[in-house]
Amino acid sequence: MSFSYTAVLLSIVPVFGLVAIGVGLRGFKWVTPEADGSIMRMVVNCLYPCLIFENVLHNDALRNPANLAAAPVSGFLLMGGSIVAALYLGRLLGLTQGHGLRTFAFSSGINNYGYFALAVCAALFGENSPTIGLTLMHTVGGEAAMWTVGIFVLAGLSLREGWKKLLNGPVIALALGLFFNLTDLREHLPGFLMETIHRCGLCGLTIGIILIGCTIHEYLARPSALYHSRVTPIACLLRLGVFPLVFLVVAKCLPFTDDMKCVLIVQAAMPAGMFPIAIAKHYNGQPLTAAQVVIGTTTLGIVTIPLWIKFGMAWVF
Fold first, then answer.
1. Model's pTM, two decimal places?
2. Which GO terms describe its biological process (predicted)?
3. I want to staple 145 with a disulfide (CB 3.0 to 4.6 A). Which of 73, 80, 178, 248 is the partner?
């Protein structure tokens, strides 16, 4: 299985296009900062859970016990390990606590495992591909790592408090989707309900990515502040160099199914996730440091994402 560089590049162009639309909407003040909270709650608590439920419900690959375990476990271990590694490597490379080290580790260790990865998987493998459901399962492990290991590193929040964050709409939707999938009760769900869920799910991915663009607009107003002589290069080295190699070695060496290998290859190529900017604000981190990581890796990611996916497909398989 292989893709040309151009094919992979074209698969991510619409994603960055949606981000650009979000930046434009905020720039024209058609979507104001006051609306962000309500839109985010709509996406996280309604639209995104519908996307998860539909894709998990109809994903036969999740009936394979190997996939059912591998997707969330790999998500937790790879993301949790990346956060801890970024903490120690950042310190070795000269970053210090009190000057953005913890926020750097949190932001660099969390890749864009959700919206971006789903959009790329859909573009490369098809909207009905098993990789969509497996990616959603993978995100559960990633969410667990972010709200436990990640918050512990960022703010010293106890693991118990972090675990409480996992009882949310997406996780509940995933659990319900798995239940109806594995028990064959999905055949008894009414058509009008599934059509409603389908339409909400379509909105979830698009609106979520546009909102990312709205979120980063405020940082684009100060372009000189978005580059830091240590933070930006080190983040790009780790997130777009070291960590992708680790993901690909795991995909190649462990006995995953082919669909799961594809998920890990796409995850390997992803730049830093954008949600940590908001989390850094909430937990008294340094959101500018998070923005430097996100903007730097995302900008360079336009070039590196196709390269890593093309290399990964050729090497892993």
1. 0.84
2. transmembrane transport
3. 80
